Amino acid sequence: MKTVKSRRPLDFCAIDFETACNYRASACAVGLVRVRNGKIDDTYFTLIKPPAGMEILPSFTRIHGITNRHVESAPVFGEAWPAMREFIGSDLLVAHNCGFDKGVLRYCLEHYGIEDAVPEFECTVVCSRRKWPELENHKLNTVSDFLGIELAHHEALSDAIACARIYVAAHS
Known about the structure:
By secondary structure, the protein is an alpha/beta fold. Helices cover 40% and strands 19% of the residues. Helix 5 crosses helix 7.
């Protein structure tokens, strides 16, 4: 009798931050994608008003298109976090180049005096290097192109969706 190996369902939350400047606590947008059994189940996006002194620099606007005017009535991270935390729940967080996004989350929590622990992270750069070593590089746009994933690069929700799809593909 042949035994079938049971696979753990792919349940996780992909995350992507955009920042206003070089300070890690300067989140100005976040995209979250909840995945259940390897399929996108729900998404969450919000602009975030960065802290005073961490306004969006023109060089960053050229990357992600977000200006100080876009975020003037957006919630600050401390106001956005409860909804983000509820969305994430107890999920593993997945990010492309996760050191960046994990750092943004950690510094934002610290800046606002929020004592929540930073959830566990897994990196899709690492996953993609392992799964597709033949790629020229493992940047989000390169891996997305390789897998045929539509991407509006540096839009937080689009980047998080691409990250989620890369993670699922890497574990298929």
